[in-house]
């Protein structure tokens, strides 16, 4: 870290390794729209003969509430998907910045020389943590176990390739 930039998150030099992680978005906007249309049509068609009854408003209510809840759960899932973790590795610093969906930013940094990378297998498979600067953080908890293994290997490769004595 240079004396001109004491804040490790405001460095202007190019990191050796830089990656941004985010949760998988397997259902895009078109898929979401098509799923909601299918659910609405699939819920409405069986109720059409019942609309002639006097109690059709109650029947309609029991059809609308589950569709509305499904819509709200989809929206909540998309909002939670705004979570990101940014990892930057410099010769003298590793910095992790986690941006949560509600806007909160969590930051952690350490000297790569003292960094410890741990992979735990209980209770979560390939649970990845980084330890340094007197703190332990989880990394990529939203990734698949295979992606966490790859991330660990990438970080170790970069850290072991650093010339600490330079």
Biggest sheet strand order reads: 1-2-3-4
The proportion of residues in beta strands is 15-25%
- By DSSP, the count of extended strands is 7
For the sheet with most strands, the description reads: 4 strands, antiparallel
Features:
single chain, 166 residues, PH-domain like, 3 helices, 35% helix
Descriptive overview:
It is a single chain. With 166 residues, the chain is α+β, with helices and mostly antiparallel strands. It has a single domain (16-166), classed as PH-domain like, CATH 2.30.29. It has three helices and seven strands, in the order E-H-H-E-E-E-E-E-E-H. Strands 1-2-3-4 form a four-stranded antiparallel β-sheet, covered by helices on one side. It has a three-stranded antiparallel β-sheet with strand order 5-6-7, with helices on one face. Helix 1 packs antiparallel against helix 2 (56-80).
Summarize the structure.
With 166 residues, this protein is of the alpha+beta class. It has helices at 29-44, 56-80, 145-161; strands at residues 17-21, 84-90, 93-99, 105-110, 116-120, 127-132, 135-138.
Any chance you could write out the topology, listing elements then pairs?
Blueprint: E1 17-21, H1 29-44, H2 56-80, E2 84-90, E3 93-99, E4 105-110, E5 116-120, E6 127-132, E7 135-138, H3 145-161
Antiparallel strand pairs: 1-2, 2-3, 3-4, 5-6, 6-7
Helix pairs in contact: 1-2
